[in-house]
Design brief:
alpha/beta
């Protein structure tokens, strides 16, 4: 199958501040890729570049499904790739159903009219994410974990082939972080969605990702399997804190911990 995304030579600067330097990456169908790096390394900027929310500087290229990004109409791109920002919002009083329905906006007909297919997709996603009993609940009444599932559901009703998430586990407790990454992995496997998820949790991302992409000051420091990228000396340099790697018997995924003292 062709790559969902092929991006090469990406660079971007805010005024005179160069934030992204010659980064290349790709996404395959059904693959979960964890995007790692300390604050200020360029994770959010890279995601916004891939979506066309920021304009490339220089000669870089972004190709979604064999078609260069500038050739995509916004409405068609929204059907192909969905985006979950770090702090998703909703209008006061909106119910779970209201929020999910908004993900169908790229498919609505004239005057915002919904089709039976739109309603069918909303019901299917609600069932998949165990939200079907919450459809009439206002979002303000939900827990943090439930609300994050609703926002992921809003992405999924777009029926995307790729899902880009910026720190999706922010503000979630440990159980809900694990549940969220399990959900992303299952969605990738079952629906062949390519997932790129920025994360600050090295070990959690490693547990559920097929590949890890590590950024350092806007450059690509590493791109490989969790076993390859979770290198103590590399991560000690990138994060500025001494790391210790622990290899667990029977597991191909190591753990990294900061060394105290």
């Amino acid at each position: 199958m062709p790559e969902v995304l092929s991006a090469k030579g990406l660079s971007f600067a805010y005024a005179e501040n160069q934030v992204i330097h010659n980064i290349s990456l790709h996404l395959n169908p059904g693959e979960v890729v964890g995007l790692l790096g300390p604050n200020g390394s360029g994770k959010s900027t890279l995601i916004r570049l891939l979506l066309g929310q920021l304009q490339l500087k220089g000669t870089g290229t972004i190709i979604w499904n064999t078609q260069p990004l500038p050739q995509w109409r916004p409405r068609e791109l929204a059907k192909f790739v969905a985006y979950l920002p770090q702090f998703p919002t909703h209008e006061p009083g909106q119910t779970v159903a209201d929020i999910l329905r908004l993900g169908r906006a790229p498919y609505w007909g004239a005057f915002g009219l919904e089709s039976p297919r739109d309603m069918e997709v909303v019901q299917q996603v609600a069932k998949t994410l165990d939200l079907h009993q919450l459809l009439n609940r206002p979002a303000e009444e939900l827990s943090g974990g439930q609300r994050q599932r609703v926002f992921i559901g809003r992405c999924l009703v777009q029926e995307p082939r790729a899902l880009l998430l910026d720190e999706p586990s922010t503000s979630l407790d440990l159980r809900h972080q694990v549940d969220l990454f399990k959900l992303l992995r299952d969605l990738a496997r079952e629906q062949s969605i390519a997932v790129l998820a920025a994360s600050h949790d090295l070990n959690l991302a490693a547990m559920f990702s097929d590949r890890l992409v590590l950024l350092e000051n806007g450059t690509l420091a590493a791109d490989g399997t969790p076993n390859e990228v979770l290198n103590a000396s590399l991560l000690s340099r990138v994060y500025g804190v001494t790391m210790e790697r622990v290899d667990q018997p029977g597991s191909t995924i190591p753990r990294l911990f900061p060394r105290i003292g």
